[in-house]
Design goal:
heterotrimer, A mainly alpha, B mainly alpha, C mainly alpha, A: mainly alpha, two-stranded antiparallel sheet, 4 strands, elongated, B: mainly alpha, 2 strands, 9% strand
């Protein structure tokens, strides 16, 4: 365990302590603990940046499951450091923001912050793991914590729907990811990323190379909401705004980008990787930006915008992989795309985080996020307006903000493939600049609409009456910091260009460093009249015109048939699978426990029968058995006869007495088999059991008089006979096979010597196997308490067949009640039965019956 | 529970119950050397009480033995558990027993065994369980 | 004798299973009891029935019946008592509440009951 391990695991530790900390200092908002931890982690991580910049990654190993080759190796290089700083830095800001956003009196803060911390820990573990399996584990943990955070308002149907959607889609990708990792292991024999890099070139020629790549990309694309898996992200906006800002724009959705960047050294240089990653990103970029324009919810716009920006970075990562194909000067030209990707990642975190927080502020103060109802807020919220203007300008790609620089670098990178002349780029390379330009125009439009419709123009009537004022300072500081960062990244890119961006980009493309070059990282605000600049001018001009006339052409969106949307496909396939599952399950799960017993017995017959007839070591020995005395004949025959007549008994008392007879005959049998303890016990137990049966009849006389013999059923009969025959065969096999000496000799020898008892059976019970006996009396105690509960405390539970105990005062919203009604066909388990109050006092006390 | 008014049964059981109880105690104490032990003795004791309940009624049992049988179960479990834990204080594994031979007045040379305490726990727990079950069902209407 | 015991064990098992597969709750309880007896006999028979004295020391005997299965069976008898009692009370309560001990009727009855009482 090293400092880095501790650092990765500390969020989990604090998560476990949050309830206690909350109790210790009840007046302090729990968000401060998270903020403090994140800030501390951020500072510690910054301390590593000097090492990383010097080109020496930190690696610490810790064997976790050595037999499976799973170790928890922490590897900190430029890329990991960038992400880790992003996670902790954004974490600190979001935590501070949430202190103002989450009301401790209305919200379940403990749950919220525990989940947030678990997510943070998982995310740190993800970016720091060097082992693919550990990475996968953390990957799924981020999905799970995201699922729980989206469903934070679990009473709302939309929340649950969004949570489930995100879980299903990202988990599907997760399964693909795991399969891809396993395929990589099959090819290379290692799960360690470092060693995979060294395995290098020979992997490409393996037949499993392409499937592994596609499966891993499935994982990355689902996580990073790439088209067509993007549909979960807009629905994930049901989460509280701090969560959206943190998970669904700055960190978790970038896990897919991280994975693509991290594994680039393995896959880069192949045409499939290039086309899938860059084209997937390009399509997502276009789709997201076009989709964002028609959104009316502030968070909806931001969600689609996030999708589009993620596509942009994905596309850049794809383009940068061309660096693996070329040499020298050309290699550096393509490698610039990698630098751009890293830089845009940083910019996006800054401006999108600020915008999300602004959306939360607007929602908080104005009570709505619908841009059709908003407007004119600039008069009452000037600070918020300034922040969102900074964010939107950076997002639109206007100088002098960071977004402008990375957008320029992106535009340059998409022009570059025109000269590549490989991978069929001769024909298709024009696609890149054209689509990128269109998408950028739309990005400009939605950025403009976002600010203009919210803050400028006339205020709607409903809003002008409400008293809207500026948000509290605590809520404004985090987005303000991010907005300033967005500006600073544009004015002084040199701040991060060499310390953060170059190490990260070099981790994506180690091939550049290997050939003795350094990654191009001179990012300047002014770089002359390049084609990219002219494209930007075109974007601004076209975008302004289109944004001003937006109301005229927005109707075009309705031309797109909703039947074809991917959401419809998702819903339909979900319904389809639900129906199929229900149908398949009800084929054998018919609710009758008798059928289940038959399945179990049938399976037992199959397995045991198969073993019995296939094992060579089993013999059926004949002869050398004990003599059978006449009275033993009598007992065994009596036992058989009484047992066989039980099914034919018409009345229940007769059946009980016949079973009792079998029990007493067993008592006799024990006497003759020289087991006095057993005989005594069996006799008393049998007497008490029969009394118990008869007591039941005494209280339910009707039960006694119901006369009905068990109906003969052939399948049951056949199963029963088969089991009987099998058991006979097994006992014969056991008799004939003696693989080892009986252990009981030990007990006979040691009983007096070391335990001081002469009754060996009793010594075994209380001494040698005393633990068994203790657990046994515990089982008995539990059984008696169960019986006591069934009889005495019966009205405490609401009703027969209901597993739910009533929670008084539980208030569910109408939506949940409606859904429950649809599900159960009635008001659900929370409805109150009328006899509830008095039953609490009656029989609740154990001494009440005296 | 049936309300008995069978004079013959009642008079016989008055005597027999004590014989059974005495036999149960005998079984309990000799359990380590000859047939018997906590289980059998416990069931036997419960059987005696059951006979009492059948020939008279449950109220009689409650009057004669005014014990909350649930507590008896708990006490039995606790004794068994404590006997086991006791060994831990002497650096021995859980449930390791000790015994020795002592010369006691009246009884002569007697073996004293911690296993007997464990068996006492079993004894009490079995009585408690059995009687809880029987009385619960018997009192239900 | 062991072979005959094995056959009896098979018969007891078959009857027990058959009873467990019937619809009547009470017969199911009886079925489990019969199966317990079968298992006890099986354990005794598997250890060999060829004799020796009861497993009590200091009685002038050298050969003993196997004490280990006896200890196991003793545990099993007592546990079985607890389980049987529990089953029995369960069916007793089911009958009290729903007026039937038929498994199939219980199922429809309990769902109807649940629907109505809300």
């Amino acid at each position: 365990m090293s400092l880095l391990h501790l650092l990765t695991l500390s969020p989990f530790l604090i998560a476990a302590l949050i309830p206690l900390l909350g109790k210790a200092v009840p007046r302090l908002h729990k968000g401060w603990f998270v903020a403090a931890l994140s800030a501390a982690l951020f500072t510690i991580l910054l301390g590593y940046s000097a090492d990383i910049r010097g080109g020496s990654p930190v690696i610490e190993s810790f064997d976790w499951i050595p037999t499976l080759g799973i170790s928890f190796t922490v590897y900190l290089d430029g890329l990991s450091l960038l992400f880790a700083l992003l996670i902790t830095g954004m974490g600190a800001l979001v935590a501070v923001y949430s202190v103002a956003y989450m009301n401790p009196e209305e919200e379940d803060l403990t749950r919220f912050y525990i989940l947030l911390l678990i997510f943070m820990g998982a995310m740190l573990g993800l970016v720091l793991s060097d082992n693919l399996l550990t990475l996968y584990g953390f990957w799924e943990l981020t999905s799970v914590s995201s699922f729980l955070l989206i469903g934070y308002n679990h009473a709302k149907h939309r929340s649950r729907y969004g949570a489930l959607k995100s879980l299903l889609i990202t988990m599907t990708g997760g399964v693909g990811l795991l399969s891809g990792f396993i395929l990589l292991y099959v090819m290379s024999g290692t799960y360690r990323i470092r060693e995979l890099f060294e395995a290098g070139a020979p992997l490409v020629s393996e037949p499993l190379f392409l499937p592994a790549m596609l499966l891993i990309l499935l994982g990355a694309f689902t996580k990073s909401a790439q088209y067509p898996f993007h549909i979960w992200l807009p629905d994930a906006m049901e989460a509280p705004t701090p969560v959206s800002a943190y998970l669904h724009s700055a960190t978790m959705v970038k896990a897919g980008l991280y994975l693509v960047a991290r594994l680039s050294p393995i896959f880069a240089g192949t045409s499939e990787w290039f086309w899938f990653v860059s084209l997937g990103g390009l399509v997502t970029l276009l789709y997201g930006s076009v989709g964002a324009v028609k959104q009316t919810d502030l968070k909806g716009i931001l969600a689609y915008s996030t999708i589009s920006q993620l596509g942009l970075i994905m596309c850049l990562l794809g383009l940068s992989s061309l660096a693996g194909v070329f040499d020298g000067e050309e290699r550096l030209l393509y490698a610039a795309a990698g630098t751009a990707a890293v830089f845009h990642l940083l910019n996006h975190a800054a401006f999108k985080g600020a915008l999300f927080m602004v959306a939360g502020i607007v929602d908080h103060e104005a009570g709505t996020r619908d841009i059709r109802k908003l407007g004119g807020l600039v008069q009452v919220m000037p600070v918020t307006f300034t922040i969102s203007a900074f964010g939107a300008l950076s997002m639109a790609g206007l100088p002098p903000f960071g977004g402008f620089l990375s957008k320029e670098m992106f535009l340059e990178a998409v022009i570059e493939p025109l000269h590549a002349g490989i991978f069929r780029l001769e024909t298709w390379a024009l696609l890149f600049p054209v689509i990128a330009w269109i998408a950028s125009v739309f990005t400009f439009i939605y950025s403009a609409l976002l600010v203009v419709r919210t803050f400028l123009g006339r205020r709607q009537e409903a809003l002008s009456e409400a008293k809207i004022h500026e948000a509290p300072p605590l809520m404004l500081i985090p987005p303000a910091l991010l907005a300033v960062l967005a500006l600073a990244l544009g004015l002084f890119p040199g701040l991060v260009a060499y310390s953060l961006i170059r190490p990260a980009a070099e981790a994506i493309l180690p091939i550049v460093q290997a050939s003795g070059e350094r990654m191009p990282s001179d990012i300047k605000l002014w770089h002359g009249f390049t084609p990219a600049l002219w494209m930007t001018v075109g974007i601004v001009a076209t975008g302004t015109v289109l944004a001003l006339t937006a109301r005229r052409w927005i109707g075009l969106y309705s031309l797109f048939p909703p039947r074809l949307s991917i959401n419809r496909l998702y819903d339909a396939s979900l319904r389809f699978f639900e129906r199929i599952t229900v149908r398949v399950t009800s084929l054998y799960m018919n609710g009758s426990s008798r059928s289940y017993v038959k399945y179990i017995l049938g399976f037992m017959l199959l397995v045991l029968g198969f073993i019995l007839f296939n094992s060579t070591g089993i013999t059926f020995r004949v002869g050398a058995y004990a003599q059978i005395a006449p009275y033993e004949w009598f007992i065994l025959l009596g036992l058989t006869a009484s047992a066989l007549s039980v099914p034919f008994a018409k009345s229940r008392p007769v059946a009980i007495i016949l079973t009792g007879a079998a029990g007493y005959l067993m008592t006799l049998m024990f006497v003759f088999l020289r087991a006095p303890d057993l005989a005594l016990t069996q006799m008393v137990v049998e007497s008490i059991s029969v009394t118990l049966y008869l007591l039941c009849f005494y209280h339910l006389p009707k039960l006694r008089t119901e006369r009905q013999a068990a109906k003969f059923r052939l399948p049951n009969f056949l199963v029963a006979v088969a089991v009987g025959v099998l058991v006979t065969l097994i006992s014969l096999a056991v008799l004939g096979t003696n693989p080892f000496d009986p252990v009981s000799d030990y007990y006979v020898r040691e009983s007096y010597e070391s335990a001081g008892g002469k009754n060996i059976v009793n010594v075994i019970l209380v001494d040698f196997r005393g633990f068994d006996t203790m657990l046994e009396i515990m089982v008995l105690g539990v059984a008696s308490l169960g019986i006591y509960n069934m009889i005495k405390l019966r009205r405490k539970a609401t009703d027969v067949g209901s597993r739910h105990v009533t929670h008084e005062g539980e208030e569910a919203d109408d939506e949940a009640a409606r859904l429950r009604k649809a599900q159960y066909g009635h008001d659900g388990p929370d409805a109150q039965p009328e006899d509830m109050p008095q039953s609490r006092t009656e029989g609740g006390e154990p001494d009440a019956e005296r | 529970m049936p309300k008995g008014n069978d004079i013959f049964l009642q008079n016989v059981s008055k005597v027999v119950v004590f014989i059974i109880l005495a036999f149960a105690l005998y079984l309990f104490f000799t359990g380590h050397g000859s047939p018997g032990g906590g289980f059998i003795a416990g069931l036997m004791t419960a059987g005696a009480l059951l006979l009492l309940a059948l020939s008279f009624d449950i109220e009689t049992v409650r009057k004669v033995v005014p014990v909350d049988y649930k507590l008896l179960t708990a006490a039995g479990l606790l004794i068994a558990l404590c006997t086991g834990t006791g060994a831990l204080f002497f650096g021995e594994p859980f449930l390791k027993h000790a015994f020795g031979y002592f010369d006691l007045p009246l009884l002569g040379k007697t073996e004293l065994h911690t296993a007997l305490i464990f068996d006492l726990g079993v004894y009490l727990a079995v009585i408690g369980v059995t009687m809880t079950i029987l009385l619960t069902i018997g009192e239900d209407n | 004798m062991e072979v005959i015991a094995a056959v009896v064990v098979g018969i007891l098992f078959a009857v027990g299973i058959y009873l467990i597969l019937t619809q009547d709750l009470l017969r199911i309880v009886l079925g489990t009891s019969l199966m317990t007896h079968a298992v006890h006999l099986l354990l005794m028979a598997m250890a060999g029935l060829k004799g020796g004295a009861a497993p009590l020391l200091d009685r002038g005997k050298e050969e003993f019946a196997d004490p280990l299965p006896q200890a196991l069976i003793l545990t099993s008898i007592v546990i079985n008592f607890g389980i049987t009692a529990f089953f029995l009370v369960l069916s007793y309560r089911a009958y009290q509440k729903l007026d039937t001990t038929d498994m199939d009727q219980l199922r429809s009855e309990s769902s109807r009951h649940r629907g109505r009482s809300r």
